[in-house]
Write a structure and sequence with these properties.
The complex is a heterodimer. By secondary structure, chain A is mainly α. In chain A, 78% of the residues lie in helices and 0% in strands. The chains are: A mainly alpha, B alpha/beta.
């Protein structure tokens, strides 16, 4: 087993080192320091492998601190800050029981986990499945316990409990989880079920445990006492069943079958990258059912060239564009009805919001940012249209780029203006009818601000897409500057408007900013598209 | 008309793929571009079509005594893996392409006439390109240069996905078009190269090497080409 374990650790180390090199080389500026041939430099790779191993161990310890600290200790001490330390400790133990013993026992078992490492070692490197599984499970058992001990001790100490209870809790959890692993394997052996792949069941357990945890946490009272866990019969029982479970895992004869069941090449969970890619592709795919019936030839016969192309594009991506707008309109309708109902029941309810809105109109920055369409539409433009057409010279020419840009901007701005109008109506109508101090002028300024922001966001999404073309052909965002500039523009816009937030300034400023941005965008896209709007 | 490649250099990271290519292609000929996997054939095509930038050098189109830098619209490029907007039907895409090129096209046919020419069934014309087979997508790609007739036509592994009937048609089409164009196509299939091409060039070690026309007809043609590609020196 020792030799198998060494081989596995070597393979993991080498692939970890390769990954480190790969991502380091993608960093802006410093990435160039590593040359292409670094993959072949055994000396560098060995050093990196050691670094990767050390990082993995450190992460192992740190991960437990983060998990226990953020998910369990912090909520217990912040929500139950008025409780006595021993009550907090009981709550803490109770959450550990719900989340680590029960929820993770179902969701985080590794014995039948689809994993690239398993595929590489058993399928590609031909390590015997039994040897591989026994070695990895032994490593898992030991490292799991060791990683938990320091964190468990620290948090036990912080909650004024004896440190030995922290150590014992880690040991008990390790043995308990071995029992869970064995049960997963047993279920697979008897029924052929891989429980970790039963997504619905796993999420129901996780959801139920988190809900139970939240209920007891907000209830502020633990029904669990530490004595129930830390007593000789309970400890002996857990150690005994955990030990027997480990024996079952060690002696299990059909590991080949167990590995085969979760390491098929088309196993989606094996390749998270591909799964993400598929999910994203689904997210931005065209509406296909309708298209066969409604040919672009008939519906858009009056259009030609880029108008024709975009008319069909928007027609076949209605789900992507119209649905968010429909949701927004429905939201506005609900808001309007609620407003009118409130007006009938208690008109004076509107006095305070009207006062707030007049000086706090900048809340619209976030509202409009949330409801306007753009980013996903640009992504669909790229993956479903531009990614292929940009390979043709005619599509990269200035006339084509600008024509497309204008048509798309007009279309997106049109949709966003409808959203702005709906928000304006839903907010202003009840306010105008109410006894609150809200004049026609206020309503006009509000609508102006909403329109300005709708235009601003429309231009912004399109401008960012054309100037940074952030997408790669593999459904990933390839241009880090996209994120950086996006954040900077948002921050500058936000800060600038926060400085003067009264409606008389804010509304015209938003509209003026949007118009200036639109003109600038047209100029800059015309000037730089040849360099920026390309396949990366 | 001539297509002149002047000292084309292209690096990818530390690797120099094209090491200063100088070559002149003439109108009226079909050129076969041979090279091993990774030799840089697609990179060369991408540089010629303007899809990627070369690190130095230039590509010029020479008419008589006038030589001008080649423009993107002068080059028709058929990709080895068809690249088409899959949300459109074949008909819509060709209509769009005809629309945007209508100023340059004299006596263009109708969309259906073009489809008839490529033997694409009427029912298939109104299906999304997404559902097309590889061969059908390739036919649509070919249609684009048949429509716009650019002076330079690049075909990257063009005929491998066609069935024998269509492949023969396309070969005949290329032969009939060659008098007005410079046609360069890359392939791995030596038989096809010998059968269709007037000239053969080998891309080896980042440089282009012309194969003497006499060798095309020689019985040892295949073996000689393989030897040249194998030893990596490219010295004919």
């Amino acid at each position: 087993m020792h030799r198998t374990l060494r081989s596995i650790i070597k393979i993991r180390g080498a692939s970890g080192a390769n990954r480190l090199i790969y991502y380091f080389r993608r960093l802006p500026l410093v990435g160039k320091l590593l040359r292409d041939d670094v993959y072949a430099r055994t000396d560098v790779k060995q050093v990196l492998t050691v670094i990767v191993q050390i990082l993995k161990v450190l992460w192992g310890f740190l991960g437990k601190f983060i998990y226990l600290g953020l998910i369990i200790y912090w909520p217990v001490t912040s929500i139950g800050k008025d409780l006595l330390p021993q009550e907090q400790y009981s709550l803490y133990l109770q959450l550990v029981l719900l989340l680590s013993f029960v929820a993770a026992g179902v969701s985080s078992a590794v014995i039948l986990e689809p994993k690239m490492d398993k595929y590489i070692c058993v399928k590609l490197m031909r390590l015997p499945a039994g040897q591989y599984m026994r070695a990895t499970m032994a490593l898992r058992g030991v490292s799991f316990g060791l990683y938990f001990i320091p964190a468990m001790m620290v948090f036990a100490g912080l909650l004024a409990a004896p440190l030995w209870q922290g150590v014992l809790l880690a040991v008990l959890l390790t043995f308990w989880r071995m029992l869970c692993e064995a049960l997963h394997l047993w279920l697979f052996e008897r029924k052929g079920i891989v429980l970790v792949k039963q997504t619905a069941a796993v999420w129901i357990v996780i959801g139920a445990m988190f809900l139970l945890g939240a209920v007891t946490l907000y209830g502020g009272r633990a029904w669990f006492e530490s004595g129930w866990l830390f007593n000789l019969p309970a400890v002996t029982a857990i150690l005994l069943v955990g030990g027997l479970a480990s024996l079952y895992i060690a002696r299990y004869p059909n590991y080949r079958k167990a590995v085969d069941a979760v390491s098929k090449i088309d196993e989606p969970l094996l390749n998270m990258g591909r799964m993400m890619k598929d999910a994203q592709a689904k997210d931005i795919r065209s509406d296909e059912q309708e298209t066969v019936l409604r040919s672009g030839m008939e519906v858009h016969a009056d259009k030609t060239g880029y108008s024709y192309l975009n008319a069909i594009f928007f027609d076949r991506h209605k789900r992507l564009l119209i649905q968010p707008l429909k949701r927004c309109l429905a939201g506005c309708a609900v808001l309007l009805c609620a407003g009118l109902l409130a007006l009938a029941l208690s008109p004076e309810l509107f006095i305070a919001p009207a006062q707030y809105l007049r000086s706090g109109m900048l809340v619209l920055i976030f509202v409009m940012g949330f409801i306007t369409v753009g980013e996903k539409a640009c992504k669909a433009m790229f993956y479903n249209c531009d990614m292929s057409l940009l390979r043709y010279g005619f599509y990269r020419k200035q006339g084509a780029v600008m024509s497309n840009f204008r048509i798309r901007l007009a279309r997106i701005a049109g949709l966003n203006l409808i959203a702005a109008a709906a928000v304006g109506l839903a907010v202003n109508l009840p306010l105008l009818l109410s006894p609150a101090d809200w004049t026609i002028m206020d309503a006009a300024l509000f609508c102006l601000a909403a329109i300005g922001l709708a235009l601003f966001y429309s231009v912004h999404h399109m401008f960012m897409y054309y100037m940074f073309q952030p997408y790669g052909t593999e459904m990933n965002i390839k241009n880090p500057f996209f994120m950086v500039v996006n954040s900077i523009v948002m921050a500058v816009g936000g800060v600038g408007l926060v400085l003067r937030s009264d409606a008389e300034f804010f509304a015209p400023a938003a509209l003026a900013l949007a118009l200036v941005y639109a003109v600038l965008a047209l100029i800059l896209v015309r000037r730089f598209h040849a360099r920026t709007f390309r396949l990366k | 008309m001539q297509l002149q490649l002047d000292n084309i250099l292209k690096n990818f990271g530390d690797k120099t793929v094209l090491k200063g290519i100088d070559y002149t292609f003439d109108k009226g000929k079909i050129y076969g571009l041979l090279g091993r996997n990774g030799a840089g054939k697609t990179s060369l095509f991408n540089c010629l079509s303007g899809e990627i930038r070369m690190d130095s050098g230039g590509v010029f189109l020479r008419q008589g005594d006038v030589s001008e830098p080649v423009r993107e619209e002068d080059v028709g490029y058929v990709f080895s893996l068809p690249v088409l907007p899959e949300f459109l039907t074949g008909y819509e895409f060709v209509k769009f392409y005809l629309d945007i090129n209508k100023d340059q096209l004299a006596g263009a046919k109708t969309v259906d006439e073009y489809f008839d020419m490529m033997q694409i069934e009427p029912a298939d014309r109104h299906r999304l390109i997404k559902g097309y087979s590889h061969g059908m997508k390739n036919k649509v790609q070919m249609l684009l240069f048949i429509i716009s007739r650019p002076p330079v036509i690049l075909l990257d592994e063009p005929l491998t996905s066609f069935d024998v009937v269509v492949a023969l048609e396309i070969k005949n089409l290329l032969r009939s078009m060659k008098k007005d164009h410079i046609i360069i196509f890359s392939t791995h299939i030596l038989q096809l190269a010998a059968d269709l091409c007037d000239e053969l060039v080998i891309l080896n070690n980042g440089l282009l090497q012309e194969i003497p026309s006499a060798m095309l007809q020689s019985p040892e043609f295949e073996q000689k080409i393989i030897d040249m590609l194998k030893d990596g020196r490219g010295d004919a």
